[in-house]
Design a protein that fits this description.
Bound molecules: guanosine-5'-monophosphate
CATH class of the largest domain: Alpha Beta
Strand content: 15-25%
Order of helices and strands: EHEEEHEEHEHEHHEHH
CATH architecture of the largest domain: 3-Layer(aba) Sandwich
Number of helices: 8
Helix content: 40-55%
Largest sheet: 5 strands, parallel
Number of domains: 2
Amino acid sequence: MADKGILIVISGFSGAGKGTLVKRLLSDYDNYALSISMTTRLPREGERDGVEYFFTDREQFEKKIAENGLIEYASYCDHYYGTPRAYVEEQLKNGKDVILEIEIQGALKVKQQFPECLLLFVTPPSAAELERRLRGRGTETEDVIAKRLARAGTEAQGMEAYDYIVVNDDLDDCVAELNRLVDAARRAPVRSQDLIREIREELKGYVKGAE
Ligand code: 5GP
């Protein structure tokens, strides 16, 4: 059976480039699977149901919560966002490294339930660059941009909760760095329990012989 995959949470300010980074991780490497979230926000131009998100209404979302069908959910700028449980558990079991691209409240809830998950935080090099990228996207109104920048200020208070902070300046460098961090995380004892158990078991024979 395949080793269990790593559950990877990628957070970062709205406009930090998480979406692009995640797309690149999925296309450049074959060990990743992306969890598609449910949300009550409306699709942006070009977004498709079941691809970027499962778009739904409050009633359906609350039903999913009641069924324990979400690993976590959070409210962000007046809308619900949540991670469907079944897909994540299935992919981890199949050995995939599953990426959750979620905000900080959700990240902390995932950490409580899956203490061995890896928390990565992506930031642009500066706040001015963040504002430039948010405006450049051209998909949000001034009101929404202002809300998202204010929210970034709050989220910045929680950056220490993450395992690693990654600066998204050059896209190629940032993709490679994220992948290196995941590879290194595989070697942490908390994620190498099978290897540790096996080698300890094998070494028992020697201990007995020497006594
Ligand atoms: P956006 O509206 O820009 O697609 O997403 C807004 C924020 O919600 C982003 O920070 C994104 O990472 C976060 N988000 C997306 N899906 C989920 C989810 O399933 N759970 C939580 N907690 N946050 C999510």
